[in-house]
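Review this:
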Amino acid sequence: MSEWIEIGRVDDIPRRGARVVKTPEGEIAVFRTGDDRIFALDNRCPHKDGPLAEGIVFDHRVACPLHNWRIELESGEAVAPDEGCVRTYPVEVVDGVIRLSLVQAAA
């Protein structure tokens, strides 16, 4: 059973931007890429817990604002030579509305 919640419209997030969804388990960063794809990750870098939603989004990656670690939005994996991973969450877009599942997709 997945718990889908509507978190807003795609147009509510600027291209190459993010918004934060607060949950009882912590913050989830929801990203919109330049090609309008939507991704969701824990809002903390695996390096020093930097707020990923405040980072720079490019291609399908985000650069952490603290130490410039690059994180793949699809997998949550840090880009080499850095190592680490953040949890990802399933998202879907239905008629322009973003739906987020609170069930973690990967660790």
Notes: The radius of gyration is 13 Å. The longest strand covers residues 17-23.
